[in-house]
Design brief:
Blueprint lengths: L13 E5 L4 H11 L5 E2 L12 H6 L2 E6 L2 E6 L1 E2 L2 E2 H4 L3 E6 L2 E6 L1 H11 L2 H18 L5
Parallel strand pairs: 1-4
Antiparallel strand pairs: 2-3, 3-4, 5-6, 7-8
């Protein structure tokens, strides 16, 4: 069984998923998300958008609005892809399901590499959380 995720004060409005770009996985991902009616986030209504394995194959990164909320699918991130991130993940339990998440050091590195203002805002909190977890808290 996986361990529990630590909590932070920062609330995000989406879930980020780095996915493996193999044919089998693209088919599984397209099928798993189809019931949630994925549609490109911030796109005007009525675009001829078809959610399937071919769409995933032709694209790379997808910012989606779904009936379950916002989902960001990353074929690549500034710090790597699915395969290169695997050695920097750990299993955790979420809602009764075991999933793999990147460790805090890797998450901090990815946020620095992305270079967005909102990512920089989160780095200090993530570093403090890492210090607490490692027993190096100064407070």
């Amino acid at each position: 069984m996986g361990r529990r995720l630590p909590c932070t004060a920062r609330l995000t409005q989406d879930i980020d998923i780095v996915y493996r770009r193999t044919g089998e996985n693209l088919a599984r991902l397209a099928s798993a998300l189809a019931p949630f009616k994925p549609y490109p986030r911030d796109a005007p209504p009525g675009l001829p958008f078809q959610w399937d394995e071919q769409t995933l194959w032709r694209g790379l990164n997808f910012m989606l609005e779904t009936t379950a909320g916002y989902i960001d699918l990353w074929g690549e991130v500034a710090g790597g892809d699915y395969e290169s991130l695997q050695e920097h993940t750990t299993e955790v339990e979420m809602e009764g399901t075991t999933v793999r998440v990147v460790d805090l050091d890797t998450l901090i590195r990815l946020k620095r590499a992305a270079g967005r203002p909102r990512d920089y805002e989160a780095i200090a909190e993530l570093e403090a959380l890492r210090d607490v977890q490692s027993g190096n808290s100064t407070g």
